[in-house]
Amino acid sequence: MAKTYNVVTFGCQMNERDSETLAGMLEEMGYVYEDNFKEADVCILNTCSVRENADKHFFGVLGQLKNPHEQNPGRITCVCGCMMQQQHIIDTLKAKYSWVDLVFGTHNIQNFPELFKNVRDEKKKLVEVWSDAEAIAEGLPAKRNYDFKAYVSIMQGCNNFCTYCIVPYTRGRERSRRPEDILEEIRCLAKSGCKEICLLGQNVNSYGRAKSVPGTYHYDDEKGSVLDDGSLNLDFAGLIREIDKIEGIERIRFMTSHPKDISDELIACFRDCKHLCHMIHLPVQSGSDVVLKKMNRHYDRAWYFDKIDRLRAACPDIAISTDIIVGFPGETEEDFQGTLDLVEKVRYDSAFTFIYSVRKDTPAEKYEDQIPEELKHERFNRLLKLIHEIQEEKSKQYQDKVLKVLVEGPSKTNEEVLTGRTESNMTVDFTGDPDLIGKIVDVKIVKAQTFSLYGELI
Ligand code: 5AD
Ligand code: SF4
User: Fold this and answer.
1) Which residue's alpha carbon is at the smallest distance from atom 5 of ligand 2?
2) Is the domain defined by 149-396 classed in CATH 3.80.30.20?
3) For labeling, which of 7, 218, 414, 428 is most exposed (least CB within 10 Å)?
4) Which CATH number describes the domain made up of 4-128?
5) Residue 120 has pLDDT above 90, yes or no
């Protein structure tokens, strides 16, 4: 009988995309997918380190693999992803989690098959984590989660060093893929029936701009591409315009944008590009200029409001979402009021709110004025209440409207009902034939709730 595998993914869309690659590699080696990660012969845990909760969650899940390992010593447990780029995590794994067979990091995912075969065939344990990133490997296999929508990673790493954030340390320096490689991947996806793509990067607005990693795509306005191979000279807006021409791709999304780098050229894409979804995720993090400075975000409230105004001028119905951190060190009540005020003014369609969590070896870890937990929670709740009020009001605007919905499959809560997503990425449930899965259909909204919409197929 064929051996089985499962990949458990923690964290962001980047990790989801990496897990698709790992699954593709295992399938190429003959393994078949097993839904229950505790029963699979090979289990990979792809970790996230962006907040403390993610760390805790990972150790909890890893703990659940102890018994399966004792019952079936032949099974192989692998751990990878952002957490593995931190030495203290590796030390903990070695000291306390004897059932882990293979550890690798974010920079050597392309070597997984080789590392894995080594562990499996030689029956040994292996830790191989690279500290530096190379150019992004091309041509890796992938087992995509969906046929009709796909994540396409356009760049990796981050050079921004926001003072609270661990990503620049775990994902390394910013590096971009060649435009040709990205366009080719999207053309292939389109040919196989994919309708929606989401371009991924920690800071997509600086696509092609970072110079730091030799051998990776970089261009400058005057000299063109540094790759001496006839590479196109495209910035992010240029890349979107090229993708917009690819036949079959009906929806283009991207994430994440850093407000400091959002260009007028990109904003113009919302006006001009037929397939670019009218939505943007634009993390603000705080509504206080003092806090933004301490976070090293390189913009202030006025800059952010200006970008929002320009986006809405170019695309009046654009849906805007954000990330906000509450309780950053030194945040006063006045600073927090600034965040509430900004949220009131921008009126987000949705917002992800996070309680500040100390990340080891980041600058903010050393800031002395850490906020007490109760106060962080109290502010968090106040912010959430406001965000939900606005979201409810925004959602009501959809009542009786006819929206285009990409049908994803049966609803998680009710098998009889289909669920899909609007252009603004809201979920809509409606009754319809399962043949519609993967198609874009018109749905009239009959019940608009804060987090979900219910509709009737037109
Ligand atoms: N504490 C809380 N939230 C954080 N984020 C990143 N680092 C931290 C941290 N240390 C949030 C930011 C980012 C999102 C992905 O996670 O809001 O945009
Ligand atoms: Fe982290 Fe800031 Fe980079 Fe986003 S832009 S990944 S928050 S350092």
Assistant:
1) 160
2) yes
3) 414
4) 3.40.50.12160
5) yes
